[in-house]
Amino acid sequence: MTYDAFRHFADSWGLLFMAICYLAFVGWALLPRNRERSKAAKEMIFKDRDNG
Predict the structure, then answer these.
(1) What residues contact residue 28 under an 8 Å CB cut-off, 6+ apart?
(2) Phi, psi (5° rounding) for residue 2?
(3) Interacting residues of 38 by C-beta distance below 8 A, sequence separation 6+
(4) I need a surface site. Which of 14, 23, 25, 50 has the fewest CB within 10 A?
C-alpha cells in the first residue's frame, strides 16, 4: 500500500470510523443505566473533604 493510497483511505473511511466510535462512546456514557456511575465520578473529588 502506497502512502497516497493509505492517506486516501484514512481521509475517507478512517474519519468515518472515528466519528462513529465517538458517537458510540458518548451515547454509552449517556445511557440511563450509567447515571449512578456518572454521579459517583462527579462527586469523587469531594469524598475526603472536611466539612469545615
Answers:
(1) 34
(2) -80, 165
(3) 29
(4) 50
